[in-house]
Specification:
Layout: H1 11-16, E1 24-25, E2 28-29, E3 31-32, H2 43-56, H3 66-86, E4 94-97, H4 100-115, E5 121-125, H5 134-143, E6 146-150, H6 160-166, E7 171-177, H7 189-198, E8 202-206, H8 218-221, E9 225-229, E10 240-244, H9 246-249, E11 262-265, E12 270-272, H10 286-302, H11 304-323, E13 328-330, E14 340-345, H12 350-358, E15 362-363, E16 365-367, H13 372-377, E17 383-387, H14 394-411
Parallel strand pairs: 3-15, 5-6, 5-7, 7-8, 8-9
Antiparallel strand pairs: 1-2, 4-10, 9-10, 11-12, 13-14, 14-17, 16-17
Helix pairs in contact: 2-10, 3-10, 4-5, 11-14
The structure holds 4'-deoxy-4'-aminopyridoxal-5'-phosphate.
4'-deoxy-4'-aminopyridoxal-5'-phosphate is lined by residues 99-101, 129, 131-132, 177, 181, 206, 208-209, 229, 370.
Length: 412
């Protein structure tokens, strides 16, 4: 029997806020299931961008004229919003970056270069996105440190017993995602953080797939760093957040040099600005960061719990529907998942499935999803990934299932 998809909000009303959804692609109503790559943007976000450029575009922080003050105020309001959204202790702990990739590179370059030495170890997991693998590989190469990897179990959950064994006095840093973009697995990050802290390691959480779906309380978690990308949270591309504990950020050298990150510059010596500006060199992404606040407001107003309940009902429904089709194998069956459905179909290449679904107006992602080692672990080249957001519906999943069913019968 079909599971009901009931929600505490009106999906039709939510959909009205997303203009991009109301179009035809290849002669059919667009079904957008590529939300783990980037989510669509509500009118409020688009309006904020337009208001900024048409009303108060100005460079921030040093201007004393009215537009500069307005822009600075709006930019700093986003920092307040992010602080509240993740329950950070202070706005000094909120650094604006381009997104999760830059946040991780900042920590690897600044914290990693200063505090890691030969023989130290960094632990990541087999579930990581390349953005949470390659910066650590670069650091290990430079420092003669060693990268250790927590294996993943057949259902897509991390092998926590193996993690406990990997931890030692040599472990200096643990970097793990909150949720996997490829399989949807929600990792038990509180437990992972607490275990790492027992050995004195610092912990970075890649929150790319959590920002729009899961509650985040950095003080309750006790993580040392937490990274977010606005564009996966109904906000603009090109902006995001590195949260860091103030006591750690204070000890770290700047990541880039230039405007805004300095207090005083002479040719003999430069002194650095206070947190968080020490890490925000150059003109930042002002417009998109200001509009990021509208995205956070959208999530808060809709209610993260409501969003999670809706998406989880969609995931359950889609898992049942897709799982019942001949030859479909779902990759990633962890107990706790965000709304990501990854699968392969016997005898069909994911890329071909993606193209045939696109011909039916259905946007999914196919391939390795920037997690090649994870695909190797499962002995596959890639998967088809349908990922759901607040504006998706049960009817759209029916369309996906019908499309897949046709593709399967057509190809056999
Ligand atoms: N980590 C995870 C788990 C992701 O899903 C992504 C984006 N696909 C990233 C990191 C990188 O995020 P961004 O491209 O926004 O820097």
């Amino acid at each position: 029997m079909d599971s009901p998809v009931t929600t505490a909000f009106n999906v039709a009303e939510i959909r009205k806020q997303f203009p991009v959804l109301h179009q035809q692609v290849n002669g059919r109503n667009l079904v957008y299931f590529d939300n783990a790559a980037t989510s669509q943007k509500p009118l409020s976000v688009i309006q904020t961008l337009s208001d900024y450029y048409s009303g108060y575009n100005a460079n921030i922080h040093r201007g004393i004229h009215t537009l500069a003050e307005r822009a600075t105020k709006a930019y700093e309001e986003t920092r307040q919003s992010v602080k509240a959204f993740i329950n950070a202790a202070s706005t000094e702990e909120i650094i604006f970056v381009r997104g999760v990739t830059e946040a991780i590179n900042l920590v690897a370059s600044s914290y990693g270069r200063k505090f890691l030495k030969a023989g130290d170890e960094i632990i990541i997991s087999a579930l990581e996105h390349h953005s949470n693998i390659v910066p650590w590989q670069l650091l290990c190469e430079e420092k003669q440190a060693t990268l250790r990897v927590i294996p993943v179990l057949e259902n897509g959950e991390l092998d926590l017993d193996a993690y406990r064994k990997l931890l030692s006095g040599k472990t200096k840093l643990v970097a793990i995602n909150h949720a996997s973009n490829s399989l949807g697995t929600i990792n038990p990050i509180k437990e992972i953080i607490d275990l790492a802290h027992q050995t004195g390691a610092v912990v970075l959480i890649d929150g790319a797939q959590a920002g729009a779906h899961l509650p985040i309380d950095v003080q309750q978690l006790g993580c040392d760093f937490y990274c977010l990308s606005s564009h996966k949270m109904y906000g603009p591309t090109g902006t995001g957040v590195l949260y860091g504990k103030k006591e750690l950020l204070s000890t770290m050298p700047p990541y880039q040099g230039g405007g805004e990150m300095i207090k005083d510059v002479t040719f003999a010596k430069t002194t650095y600005n206070n947190l968080p500006y020490k890490f925000e060199a150059g003109t930042p992404n002002i417009a998109d960061t200001i509009a990021f606040k509208s995205a956070i407001d959208f999530i808060n107003e809709t209610g993260k719990e409501n969003i999670a309940a809706h998406e989880s009902a969609l995931l359950n429904y889609a898992t049942k529907k897709a799982g019942a089709l001949p030859g479909v194998k779902i990759i990633g069956t962890a107990q706790n998942k965000v709304s990501v459905l990854s699968f392969v179909i016997d005898g069909l290449h994911p890329f071909d499935i993606g193209q045939m679904l696109d011909a039916r107006g259905i946007a999914v992602r196919t391939g390795h999803h920037c997690t090649q080692p994870l695909m190797d672990r499962f002995g596959i080249e890639g998967t088809v990934r349908a990922s759901f957001a607040v504006y998706n519906t049960k009817e759209e999943i029916d369309q996906l299932a019908e499309g897949l069913s046709r593709i399967i019968s057509f190809m056999k």
